[in-house]
Amino acid sequence: MLGAVDRPDILLVAALLHDLGKRAGSRDHAAEGAPLARAAALRLGFDARDADLVELLVREHLTLVELATGRDLSDASTLEALLQAVGRDLTTLELLRALTEADARAAGPAAWSAWRSQLVDHLTAQARDALTGTPRAPRDLLAPQRAVQEAVREAVVRTGAAQVLYPAPTDEEPITQVCLGAPDGPGVFAAQARVLARHRMDVRSAVVLTLDGVAVNTWWVTGRPSDQPHPTALRTALERELQRREDPAARVLDVDPGAPPRTAEDAPVVTLLPGASSEATVVQVNARNRASLLADVAAMITLHRLHVRSAHVMTLGQRAVDVLYLTDARGRPLEAPMVGRVIAALMDAAAT
């Protein structure tokens, strides 16, 4: 890894110092550790310019993986956020990519799975192309298969009923793409989330789309297709869920709710991410992980008559981080009063 970058000395020092800000009560160890790392680099004999680079790498050492795994990679704002973080400098980008992998590998195999590596590499390649001016055909990593979407849409139109289809796997990572379709209407996304939760399917990401009055939502879940429920079982469950979606009792999931918050640190945190998208309001829900979390959050969004454009899910130890791209009924970002109400409602849903 050291041989893959122009400044292996900077990478080594940044790797040694990247967690310098970790301490009891620290709220942002990267930001708190960055100036300490700069001071240490100066003491080690680096000049001010190199010490500034060490400081930047320590401050941003979580940025690349958080953007790659928790943001919409098809949104131009995601790429722009990374370019700003590295100061639009190619050398800094390559150092941050190497530091990201080194940090994750040190944390264990789960922190640097093939799935995360692929997402990080995809976003890095986008940034590299932008900085070098290399013209390449655009490629969306978390892109639903269009032929599958169209097949599901046609089946829903033909039958008037919910449909489920597992596309053929596109790589060796144990991640399954599943396409769920139904006549569009309020609560479809939440109903689908409840079905997946009841079948113990661990959601990583979701892309929401409406085609000619049909909700065609693509979900990425942990595990290979052979590990997933049969499409008929999911379709039957989704039909039942859609028929009962107006019944509040139907929203009660018969899954382990997880341990209740015990301290203030266990409580959910809901954060608005301004600037994360120009096309949607982006909200991050950081809460104690449980099987029903996304479904509970989706139900609250339905109650407020909002739409989910995409959802991105990370699991960090005992915490789950759900990043939601929300729009109003007309597909526009939310107005300020609604944002306040939604954040309060999501706090309640995440604490349930």
TrEMBL record:
HD domain segment(s): 1-96
Annotated InterPro entries: ACT-like_dom_sf, ACT_dom, HD_domain, UTase/UR
Organism: Brachybacterium kimchii
PANTHER family assigned to the protein according to its UniProt record, in alphabetical order: BIFUNCTIONAL URIDYLYLTRANSFERASE/URIDYLYL-REMOVING ENZYME, BIFUNCTIONAL URIDYLYLTRANSFERASE_URIDYLYL-REMOVING ENZYME
ACT domain segment(s): 177-257, 282-352
Keywords tagged on the record: Hydrolase
CDD domains: ACT_UUR-ACR-like
Domain of life: Bacteria
Residue ranges crossing the lipid bilayer per the database entry: none
Name of this chain's protein: HD domain-containing protein
